[in-house]
Structure formats: structure tokens, C-alpha cells
Design goal:
It is a single chain. The chain has about 625 residues and is of the alpha+beta class. Among the domains are: about 1-160, no CATH class; about 455-620, no CATH class. Helices cover about 20% and strands about 50% of the residues. It has 13 helices and 36 strands. Helix 1 runs antiparallel to helix 2 and helix 11 packs antiparallel against helix 12. The N and C termini lie far apart (about 85 Å).
């Protein structure tokens, strides 16, 4: 806004010289006099092509041909301003009284080039002596007031080039109307044009232009519209890039607006196309503060307190408080296992590279698809593309979860999690994580994971980590392990309806390497049996190969290993008869060893191998399996 008033001031001063000169000297000398006075006052050359044409009626004034204002010495991009025609009219009676009242000031088809150099210098910074000392340069005879009834710019092109940032902003077909009826009274501005082929309009009222140009704080009301989005502001501003007041922004089509400003990459349209923001704003130097701010995105509403440092790399410190949030649209189906496997869609985390800061999020609840989190409280610290989120504890899957999650976008995507859960529902957890809902029990556990890759499939295929879980009393639907051992058969699907295994506890630890989870110490305690288990789960292809070895409490001679294989969403159960014989023999050998000092085990060593694997004639007897 400041450059608008100052450019107008310079044009007014030059035109004043031309008007006064037209009364005293021939018309062909007016342009030369105006150009000379303009350069003496600003240090910039003013070129007027063609003869200046003065007029005495119906108002005192002058019009020129093409006008050019030179750029700063350090710029090689061409003139600061060009215009096809410049005209000015003044009130003769006000002039007689010693005041200057500009009734009209018109610039036709001007081209204005605003530049910021790499070192921060700006090309519109000039010596504004003329505007401060008056048209004649005689401070003792300076006019009492200078007012402007109406300044009009039509068909203008305005370019702003930031050489430090390497960016250029261009406004086309700009029509502008500016009125400064009194230096101590509000000035009004109306402007319209196009930016990137989208309509742009601005309406503003600035209190006390003279005070504003002097660096004082004055009132400002503003309304701007771009591509359907409307921004209003009511507060106070200063020409030193300071402002405070209430703002209100409404965007009926967020994707279109982001595309217009070149920031549409990765916006989740499913969250909602419309949005709004209203709150208190304070801008001081390069710091933007938001208070009592409410953001609305689709059906989501949050309260925000934020401080943003507007440096080369912005830094944001913010607190977000929300009620019930439903972000199921963000979850979608990207992370859920499907019949075709994990999603291979690229995960875009480039936004982490654009800003640093800290974000505290509190929400009464957060819904992600079928998962609901209550009492959410997280603190995220973002530094040069690495986001560390502390989960301060919240309720999920019927229990509590705490820990940390690290998302690193440096050199690709990597993910690390350290989680501790208490009282979690295994049925809900496994249903979301693996599509398996047959296990009903409460679980305590720890999980440490590290993965890298640019998709969910890549992350799952290369996971590393470990964990431990302790599951309380519950049931496993679809199979009765005790009946399977006693009957020495797996009931067919037609007979398994209603079958279940009731247990008292399950304990296990595991490691993960290359996307394969390995477990060797599963221990199950149940009223009718006890069992141990071992095997692997391949996380990438979503398959498992696992063996559970139950032993009946009332007949420990019956050992019948049960295999669980195939896709984890629909596993196949089978009996390992060969292993059953081996386990029975091993159990008998152990008992005889206790009685005979291990001599029978030694004799069987050549048949079974000292490591317990089958070999030789015994392997042949068992069918080689």
C-alpha cells in the first residue's frame, strides 16, 4: 500500500510543476521543466514524450504523451514505470488560497515494475524531497495542504520480482481508483484486475495517509477477493510492515485456490472443498501471531494459537484444540491390507521440508476409519524434514497407548515407532492391522519398528524391530485346540461353526527383520491345555507359517502340533502328524532319560540328530516330513 501512495505523490509533484510551469512558460518547455524538477527531487529520470498540453477551462490542468520513470541504478530490467498518457487537473480557487487540490490524476496503460534485489534493496525507494517540501522547493512557502479527489489508473500491468526468492508476481488489466480528500482523513482505494487469469478485486480504506507515510499506525479496513475466496481485515497498520486486527477468510473451493497460488500438491480433497478462518492477527516485522483463531475445513473445526516466524525457512509454534475430529478421509484405504496386498501408492512427505516448528494437538476424539482415539494429546517437533511426535497418552482399542513416532523425509521416507500399549483389544487391533478378528482378549505390549520406503508396501516389506506382548484371558474363534488334539483331527469348516478355544493367558516376544516377524517363545495357558508356539509372519505378502504345540492337561502323552499357514486374513489349520510322533517320542525319551541317565536319548541321537531335527531312517519312517 505504501508504494501506491508514494508513486502517486511523485506523480502529483511532477504534475504540479507542469501545471505551474504551463502558466509561465511555453508548452514545449513544460515537459522539460517537469522532468528536471522530478529528477532533482527523486534522483530518477523522468521522460515525457511529445508536447505537454495545458488547459485553463473547465479546470486548470495539463496532459502529456508517453511517460517513463527510470529504474534504480542496480536494476537492468527496464524502467520503473511507463504510461501511455498522464493528465492532471487542479482546483484554481484552492490554488489561490495557497492549497493544492488535485481534482483528477489519470495514468493510462501504465506498466509498473517493482523489484527487490538479492541484498534486500527495493527499486521504489527514492528521495521523496518534493513531496515533503512542496512543488516549488521553497519550504517557507510550502502549500498548507495537498489533496487528491480522484486518481485513476486504467489498463495497468504490475510486476513484482523478488530476486532473492527467484519469484515473480504479475497483475494484469489493473484498474485502480484512489482518493485522498484530506491528508488527515481516510483515503479510499478500489482496484480490480487479474492474477493468473483469475479475477482479483481489492477495496480498502486507510486512515490518515500522511501519518501512514510517516510510519505511524493508522486504521485499515480491507476486503479482497481472488478466485472466489474472500479476505476481510479490520484493524490497524503501519508502513513498517506492521499490522493488528481481526481477519476473516472464506474459501469455497480450496483446491482451486491452492492451485491458483501454486500450492495444491497433496491436498486431501476428501477432507472438504470449502474452508474458513477467522481470528485476531498481529504482524510485527517478520513475526505473525494468531490468537482466538477458529479454522474450519469441511466439517472439522479447531481453535488455534500460533506464532509464525516469516524467515527464509519459516518456523511455526502452534497449539490446536479440537472437539471431535473425523479424519477418516485421510486414512482412506491406503494403509489397510487388501486382497491385493498393501498399497503401492507413493507417500508424499515433501511438506515436511517446507517449515520447522512445534505443534501441540489436543482433541476430544479422533476418528480414522474404524479406529476411534479418545483424549488425544500429541506434541510434534519438526526440524529440517524430520518430525518427532510424542504420544502423551490416549485411549484407543479399549485401552491406552503412549510412545513416539518419527517420520523422516531426508533422503526419502523413513519411519520409526516406539509404542507401549495397555489394555488394548486384540480383536479391534488385529482387525484394523491385519483383517483378523477371531482373537478376543485384552493385551499389554511394546512395539519398536523401523522402516523405510516411499509406499506402505515398501515400508512393510523392509520393517525391522522387536516387541513383546502379554494377553489376558480370552477366546480364539473358529478352532478348538483341545478338541483337535484329543480327536487328532481338524474339524472341517462345516463343523467349525461355534468352535472356540478358551485360554487364560498368552505371552510372546518377537523380532522383525526384512519384513518377516519371527517368534520362538509363544506360551499359551488354558483351562484344558497348555501350548507353545513358534513360526514366522511375512508382513509384506501378508502370509504366515506358524506351529502351535498344545498339550492336554489331563493327558500329557497327547502331543499334536497344529500348523497355521497361508494368508493371515483367512489362515488354514492343519495337523503335523510327523511332528506329533516326534514330539511324543521326544517326550518319552525325556522321561526315560530322567530314569536312565539319558542313554535312550543317546541311542536315538543318530536317528533324530543332536539338534532335534529328523534324519536318517526315522525321517524315512515319518515320510520324509
Amino acid at each position: 500500500m505504501r508504494w501506491v501512495f508514494r508513486v502517486v505523490s511523485v506523480l502529483v509533484a511532477a504534475a504540479m510543476v507542469a501545471v505551474f510551469g504551463s502558466l509561465l512558460i511555453p508548452a514545449d518547455k513544460v515537459a522539460e521543466a517537469a522532468a528536471s524538477r522530478f529528477q532533482a527531487a527523486t534522483g530518477r529520470a523522468l521522460t515525457i514524450e511529445g508536447a505537454a498540453r495545458p488547459s485553463l477551462w473547465p479546470e486548470l490542468g495539463i496532459s502529456t504523451g508517453a511517460v517513463t520513470v527510470a529504474n534504480a541504478d542496480w536494476s537492468d530490467a527496464g524502467p520503473l514505470m511507463t504510461a501511455e498518457r498522464l493528465s492532471i487537473g487542479v482546483d484554481l480557487m484552492a490554488l489561490v488560497r495557497g492549497d493544492i487540490r488535485i481534482t483528477t490524476l489519470t495514468a493510462e496503460a501504465p506498466n509498473l515494475l517493482l523489484e527487490r534485489a538479492a541484498d534486500g534493496a527495493v527499486n521504489w525507494a527514492m528521495n521523496w524531497a518534493m513531496a515533503e517540501t512542496g512543488a516549488t522547493g521553497d519550504t517557507s512557502e510550502a502549500p498548507r495542504t495537498v489533496t487528491l479527489d480522484n486518481a485513476r489508473i486504467t489498463g495497468a500491468t504490475i510486476r513484482y520480482v523478488d530476486h532473492a526468492a527467484g519469484t515473480e508476481t504479475r497483475l494484469d488489466a489493473v484498474d485502480l481508483s484512489l482518493a485522498l480528500p484530506d491528508p488527515a482523513a481516510p483515503a479510499t482505494l478500489e482496484a480490480s484486475g487479474t492474477w493468473r487469469n483469475a479475477p482479483l478485486s481489492v477495496s480498502a480504506e486507510v486512515g490518515a495517509p500522511a501519518a501512514f507515510l510517516a510510519g505511524e499506525t493508522v486504521s485499515l479496513t480491507l476486503q479482497a477477493e481472488l478466485g472466489g475466496a474472500v479476505l476481510s481485515f479490520d484493524g490497524r497498520v503501519a508502513s513498517t510492515a506492521a499490522a493488528e486486527g481481526r481477519f476473516d477468510l472464506g474459501a469455497p473451493d480450496i483446491p482451486a485456490l491452492l492451485a491458483l497460488v501454486g500450492a495444491d500438491a497433496g491436498y486431501p480433497v476428501a477432507l472438504g472443498r470449502s474452508g474458513a478462518a477467522v481470528g485476531d492477527l498481529t504482524l510485527t516485522g517478520e513475526t505473525l501471531n494468531l490468537r482466538k483463531t477458529r479454522l474450519t475445513l469441511g466439517a472439522q473445526r479447531v481453535e488455534v494459537i500460533a506464532d509464525l516466524a516469516l524467515a527464509d525457512r519459516p518456523r511455526l509454534v502452534a497449539r490446536i484444540d479440537a472437539g471431535d475430529l473425523d479424519l477418516s478421509a485421510l486414512a482412506g484405504e491406503a494403509g489397510a491390507p487388501a486382497a491385493s496386498g498393501w498399497s503401492t501408492e507413493p507417500i508424499d512427505v515433501s511438506a515436511l521440508q517446507t517449515i520447522d516448528g512445534e505443534l501441540l494437538l489436543n482433541a476430544a476424539s479422533l476418528t480414522l476409519g474404524s479406529t476411534r482415539i479418545d483424549g488425544l494429546s500429541t506434541l510434534t517437533r519438526l526440524d529440517e524434514g524430520r518430525a518427532v511426535t510424542d504420544l502423551r497418552g490416549f485411549q484407543v482399542y479399549g485401552g491406552a497407548l503412549a510412545g513416539s513416532v518419527v517420520v523422516n523425509s531426508r533422503g526419502g521416507l523413513s519411519l520409526r515407532t516406539n509404542l507401549t500399549g495397555t489394555g488394548l483389544s486384540m480383536q479391534s487391533l488385529l482387525s484394523d492391522a491385519a483383517g483378523f478378528d477371531r482373537l478376543s482378549a485384552s493385551m499389554n505390549g511394546t512395539l519398536n519398528l523401523l522402516g523405510s520406503g516411499n509406499s506402505v508396501a515398501a515400508l512393510m516389506a523392509g520393517l525391522l524391530g522387536d516387541g513383546r506382548l502379554a494377553i489376558g484371558a480370552g477366546t480364539l474363534e473358529g478352532v478348538d485346540l483341545a478338541a483337535t488334539v484329543r480327536n487328532r483331527r481338524i474339524a472341517p469348516r462345516s463343523e467349525s461353526t461355534g468352535a472356540r478355544t478358551v485360554f487364560d493367558s498368552i505371552n510372546a516376544s518377537f523380532t522383525i527383520a526384512g519384513g518377516v516377524l519371527s517368534n520362538q517363545d509363544l506360551a499359551i495357558s488354558a483351562p484344558r491345555f497348555e501350548a507353545e508356539g513358534r513360526g514366522t509372519v511375512s508382513l509384506g505378502p501378508q502370509t504366515l507359517e506358524y506351529t502351535v504345540i498344545p498339550t492336554l492337561r489331563d493327558d500329557q502323552r497327547l502331543v499334536l502340533p497344529i500348523t497355521i499357514t497361508g494368508a493371515w486374513a483367512a489362515p488354514a489349520f492343519g495337523l503335523d502328524v510327523g511332528s506329533a510322533i516326534e514330539e511324543t517320542l521326544r517326550g518319552g525319551a525325556e522321561r526315560l532319560r530322567d530314569e536312565n541317565g539319558g542313554t535312550l536319548r543317546d541311542r536315538l541321537g543318530g536317528e533324530t540328530g543332536t539338534d532335534g531335527t529328523r534324519s536318517g531312517p526315522l525321517r524315512n519312517l515319518l515320510g520324509g516330513n
